[in-house]
Amino acid sequence: MTATLGAAAPPALQVTGLGKSFMGVAALSDVEFTLSTGTVLGLIGPNGSGKSTALDCVTGFVRPDSGQILLDGESIFGKAPHLIARAGLVRTFQTVKLYDQLTLDEHMSLSLRGLYKAGRSGASRRRSAERKRATSWLVEFGLEQLRSAPAGILSYGQKKLLALAAVLVTQPRIALLDEPLAGVNPRIIDLIRDAILQANTEGQTFLIIEHNVEFITSCCSEVVVLDAGKKLAAGPPSVIWDDPAVYEAFLGRKGDGHAG
Amino acid sequence: MDATYTWELLANGVVLGSSYALLAAGLAVIFGVLNVVNFAHGALYMLGAFAAYFFIPLTGYWIGILLTAATMAILGIVLQEGLLRRLPPDGAFSRSMLLTLGLAMIIQNGAIVLWGAGPRQLPEDSRPQGHLLLGDVIIPTGRAFIVVVAVATLGALYLLLNRTQVGRAMRGVSQNPTAALVVGISPERIGRLAMALGVGLAGIAGATLTPVFTVSPQMGITIVFKVFAIVVIGGLGSVPGAVIVAYLVGMLESFAGGYGSAMTQSISVFLFMIAIMLVRPQGLFSTEVRV
Amino acid sequence: MTAALHVHEPEETNDVMSRKSSSPLHKWLGGRHLGPLLPTAAAIALVPAVVTNDYFIDVANLALTFMVLGTAFNLLYGYVGMLSFAQVAFVGIGGYASSWLVTHTDLWQPVAFLAGGGVAALVAAVVGAVTVRLSEGAFAIITLSFTLLCAVVAAEWTGVTGGRQGIFGLPAPSLSLGPVDLVADTPRSYYYLLAGFTVLALWAMQRLVRSSAGTVMIAIRDNEPLAKAQGYATNNYKLAVFSFCAFVTGLTGALHVFRLTTIDPSIFDFYLMQVMLIIVILGGAGTFWPVAYSAVLFAVLPEMLRMADEARLIVYGALLVLGLLFLPQGVGGFLRARAMNRQLRDMRGGRS
Hints:
Chain C: InterPro entries: ABC_transp_permease (IPR001851), LivM-like (IPR043428). Chain A is an alpha/beta fold.
């Protein structure tokens, strides 16, 4: 593709017309959003609005009924989740997923081996650089002492930190985080938020599902609001207050229904 | 093929399908509600047959069937309370499967030790006499009763699952385990009911067979293959799916009966199961949401 | 806790990324993970010297067979998390394939045996291609159906399998190495054959689970969606392990069947499968050597508890149920958890 004056590279992630129904109920209808490189996009909305479903669709864990999903201009619609991950869409899960019997070190090295572009064919120098990065993440999150312990013994907050570290250490094209702050104490919230901000200043692109309003306003450059499977609005975080429909959906009816 | 023969094959298919349907429905209920693949199902079916073998000469056909159903239902509750409930709910799925397998080993071999490996048959005077005449088709009474009992039982099951609160709760649990807690019906009660139903259905299936065929400790093993295939094809947690596929298989088996050896039949069923799994891994009627 | 950013010494972790440097041969053989393999091999080698009675040598032969079968099943269920009831089928397929090849062709015997394993692996690849992606319940049921199907085929396909009679009069495995003729026609000579095979098979399987592929296997077992999210083609791994275990199992089946000099459809009976299950569950699914030793126990147990087959199976069933209720991680898992707790206490107690 020749670069002409004014031609822009395709956005990191472009989703259009995304639709998915479960047993006749539409979890998503005609959802569209764009994620530009280097931004932190917040995917917000009340419980049950389809945020996690959208994330599942984009990362290949759920096959959408309709729509177009372009990663750097190339379609990833319907691809297998491990291929999408290798293409650069690395995610965390709302219910923190870890390998109970494997050590923290093994989590980090598995993640690197599976996802990091340098990968397994790298020279030993590259591998020792990876090891250093993995170690520095564990240190930053206060997990270094437990690096040889099985992940099953970690507290909930520590598990979330480990899951996040395993994603960020691979420096993915896009990091997709599903409620990274949910259910943890303020100290860990700070650790996570600082890590996200730090990574973002270094160029990491994020798509984050969150409810924490303070986090959204301070960290997200842009938000997309979903309600009952439809896109309600998009714009800077201030849209939560500026747009009355969004305000009502987001804060007025928050807390009804089960996890989306 | 003359008309009478076709009707006979049809009738035979309905009889076969009825047995399969009772068994498959029981498996589906246990899997749907408790998320347990009950590998002891064949052994429990055999126990039901033996229970009827002992009851019917004493009490006659209908009371015998009822007593067997009640006994097996109670056994189901005992198994739930004594064994299944003791497994941690978040434990590995395979644990419950293996537990029922161990149970099957105990029941199966226990039966051989207690009653010997040979087949037995109810004495002539304990068996239902005579036959029904539907047009030109002759149906021995015992076989007709299989259908009658099955239809009645499945009808009652349908009413239970769809018209009662506890039944609806059971269906709800099968689709969303946490929902049951919201409705306010104790999960223990639902679990007990599911096992009572599941084992009871298996027992009734065995009991209705006793007056018609022979009974032996091995009878559970041979039928288990087909019933599992039926439930997998129908969708592991779906009761209506299980019943529909069961009757289909019964019909197919009846009409294909003369054609092909046991080997080709088994291969066909297996290949059919694989084919369905290729196209629709969750089964034909499953409500499972697969990721 | 200090924030000293020093790179953690690799030797202090059991991390996959680090490998303590040693001689290339030592590394290739498995490095410091060789562990109990050498003492076990030594013990296996010593048995013929200690045991004089031919009958008990044959029991030892069964023990060796169980060690490999149990470990292969452990790989599938304990390390990858696939509960497959098809292992018994592969024993039989390996047995029948090699028997047919030896009695109907002039194929060099060792190749016929390997082909037994190969046929089993091929069948596994075909069945597995469709089924490894299915849910646990469906997979268990289909593999069970497959075994039952094999039993029916073996009994009915009289032309190839000899029907219900099976194939009998199988010759003793023999190998001509120049002037030397090695024939395994006595229990003792068969023991040497099986011993060599067992040590080799155990070494290979241990090498696999201790490798980085082995870590991926455990990852798939513990959390398959996460493994996918980390870029691993989990179904490919599962298929590969499924086929590999089928190969080992088929080859073991061939050796087993030639020791008995006969094969018939009863090889597909549930007995073997139930034994494999109890070996792995009580030994400790996912622990390597406790399962291998548990296999020896269950080969020897029937000799110590002389009882009818059915009574024994009732005991096994009860052991299985009790084990699942009260010691689901098995003896091996219990020991490992205890060692882990000790290690954690040391870690937390002071900076090690």
